[in-house]
Amino acid sequence: SSHPTRRVDYGNRxxxxxxxxxxxxxxxxxxxxxxxxxxxTPLQIVNVDYPKRSAARITEAYFKKPSTTDYNxxxxxxxxxxxxxxxxxxxxxxxxxxxxxxxxxxxxVKEHGGIAFIIVKFSSNNEVYLLDAQFLFKFWQEQxxxxxxSIPKHTFVSNGFLIxxxxxxxIDYLKAIDQYxx
Amino acid sequence: SSHPTRRVDYGNRxxxxxxxxxxxxxxxxxxxxxxxxxxxTPLQIVNVDYPKRSAARITEAYFKKPSTTDYNxxxxxxxxxxxxxxxxxxxxxxxxxxxxxxxxxxxxVKEHGGIAFIIVKFSSNNEVYLLDAQFLFKFWQEQxxxxxxSIPKHTFVSNGFLIxxxxxxxIDYLKAIDQYxx
Lengths: 182, 182
Ligand SMILES: [Mg+2]
Ligand SMILES: [Mg+2]
Prior knowledge:
By secondary structure, chain A is of the alpha+beta class. Helices cover about 30% and strands about 30% of the residues of chain A. Chain A has one domain: Trna Endonuclease, Chain: A, domain 1 (3-Layer(aba) Sandwich).
């Protein structure tokens, strides 16, 4: 048995982090502040129909594991790269939210002189933090060495930036970039 | 009536430009030279099946017009962005290969201090050129003012770089970046 249509539950707060980031990035583009896009979801296309008088229709495809992060672009001449995650967990971000490939990707970003970070929303109290990728690498390594399987909330509080939320832009994360990286 | 499976004709030369660029980018990543990826094809997903004991299956989706270019990444701290095109035309690259959105995207890349260019393969004689996006902008503008609908081959010869092709990497376009931009 299968469920033909997925209903998306946006929760009490209305918008998802992804919606808010898309709106923020559109604002940054329209205001000529930065050029940052979400990448399309990677899919494995298996079958395509080419009807005579209408658009090509994909009839079989599957989600692929992403080999990079979801967002990248350019700001003040700098290459920007990040992954966004939302959690219901009140005290930590579970590392199972990331794939090995994404960690390696962010390590390479830094190696080549780019700026890499994560944006994490703790849904329970609607706080959004920016945290430099070095902290993710540290906890990822510790997990591989048998340590804890999450990044504690206090790491975000102590080493990250609480991003102010407002109407336009919704999540002004470039403020944190200005302070932390530039 | 419809044709359920598309057969892809790779032509006499064997590999497509996209294949060669993917191989080249993998080489650049593995050798720690640069971090450049092709973005996934943007799709509009209409219907997804969630079978009980197997992977989610997309049963209806359509190709979307891309709002950005196909390739981006970071090289020596610089943001890199480009579009790749292949043409059978011997004397010019038809501008119909581009969308307005892609032109605007490349203009914004330059505005924010990134490096934007096109890589074009003239299949008839297997020549591959890198051309800075400024030339594309000029011909795009001229077309909108009623001018020619293509970029002449001699613009590539005079103002672009003929990219040397070999086994590893197949299409060493970063050589042109070093000479032209850095
Ligand atoms: Mg993701
Ligand atoms: Mg394309």
